[in-house]
Amino acid sequence: MVFMPQTAAASNTQNNPKSEFLPAGQVWRRYGVSSMSLWRWVKDETLGFPKPFYIGRYRYWRLADIEAWESAQSVRAVA
After folding, report:
1. What Cα–Cα distance (Å) separates residue 56 from each residue in 2, 27, 59?
2. Which of 47, 52, 64, 78 is most exposed, with the fewest beta carbons within 10 Å of its own?
């Protein structure tokens, strides 16, 4: 299963190079999925989706981790 970012959502983070961390809402929009789908991706070890870190009760992902996962998915799709 290959998940690629939606172009409009992906361009938001690319236009702002200072965005090192993405809150959960931006990750949902990036892939066009719900909060529950994102939770399932994190829990499913076979997908290898990056784990978030928490500040208080809010989840954040490192942009570099997300981009590395996307690259791995594209390589996996080609193989």
Report:
1. 31, 18, 8
2. 78
**pTM of the predicted structure, to 2 decimals:** 0.70
Three-point CA angle 34, 55, 58, nearest 5°? 20
CA-CA-CA-CA torsion sign (45, 51, 57, 59): negative
Q: Is the dihedral of CA 5, 37, 41, 55 positive or negative?
A: positive
Question: Distance from CA of residue 22 to its chain's centroid?
Answer: 8
User: Side chain identity at 50, as an amino acid letter?
Assistant: P
Structure tokens at 66: 């997300």
31: tokens are: 């892939």
pLDDT per position as a tens digit, 29-40: 999 999 999 999
